[in-house]
Design goal:
Elements: H1 3-9, H2 12-36, H3 40-63, H4 68-89, H5 92-118, H6 133-136, H7 138-152, H8 158-172, H9 178-201, H10 213-226
Helix pairs in contact: 1-4, 2-4, 2-5, 3-4, 3-9, 4-5, 4-8, 4-9, 5-7, 5-8, 5-10, 7-9, 7-10, 8-9
């Protein structure tokens, strides 16, 4: 897989762009195809199996990661699987749910990489480097923790709402196998992504300092990832 290596070796702003832009572009084009035409049962089945593979691979691979960017990369792979759930439905409800999921995913990713970028000299590499962040900058620790809990799909955060809509759409279109697979992989991903806030709020790892600009940029962004559904709703 190229994504983890690219994420780790690129500057943080580039990593954030690569994590968001391709997904938005591909989702927009396939959504247009679904609305104004039809991609047929064959392509729908391809999305079905790709969705399952992405969710399982992303969740299992994220468990073994020790570096922040590689964990975010594998979490991104898992989120692609959740987004493909909407395409697997081939219905308007599926498209609507994936558009909500894309918006929430983009907001969470921007917030996560904004915090990683704001860490001193952008040198935070390992998950353990987030240790004791609560002591050096509690606002940053809380912001990052809320973002990662949303990533993990903890209710009632926005990440949970996006997955709920996608799984509900899958059940509505008869893709009954996708929903339980998604729930199981979400539980696994919850443990993997939950390691970051546990370290940020705990006393494990190396203390890190955060630039003052994080205090200016974090609160507006975390408001989005903390919200409910929709608008109500790495380096």
């Amino acid at each position: 897989m190229w994504a983890p290596d690219i994420y780790e070796g690129s500057p943080t702003p580039v990593t954030a762009f690569l994590s968001i832009a391709p997904k938005i572009s591909i989702s927009a084009n396939i959504s247009r195809l679904s609305i104004y035409g039809s991609y047929g049962a064959t392509l729908q089945q391809i999305f079905f199996f790709c969705s399952i593979a992405s969710m399982i691979l992303g969740a299992l691979a994220a468990m073994a990661q020790t570096k922040v960017k590689r964990l975010l990369a594998h979490s991104s792979i898992g989120h692609v699987g959740y987004i493909r759930t909407g395409f697997s439905c081939g219905t308007i409800e599926g498209i609507q749910s994936l558009l909500i999921g894309i918006f929430i995913y983009a907001s969470m990713t921007i917030d996560a990489f904004a915090i990683v970028s704001a860490l001193r000299q952008s040198r935070v590499k390992y998950i353990a480097d987030l240790g004791a962040l609560a002591k050096t900058n509690p606002i940053s620790a809380i912001t990052f923790s809320i973002t990662m809990f949303s990533y993990a799909g903890i209710p009632p955060l926005a990440g949970f709402c996006s997955k709920f809509y996608l799984f509900f759409a899958a059940l509505g279109c008869g893709a009954y196998f996708l929903a339980p697979v998604g729930v199981v992989t979400s539980v696994i991903g919850r443990w993997a992504a939950g390691r970051l806030p546990r370290l940020a709020l705990g006393v494990i790892g190396l203390p890190v300092t955060v630039r003052d600009r994080l205090l200016r940029c974090s609160p507006p962004v975390v408001g989005t990832t903390r919200a409910g559904p929709g608008l109500d709703s790495e380096r």
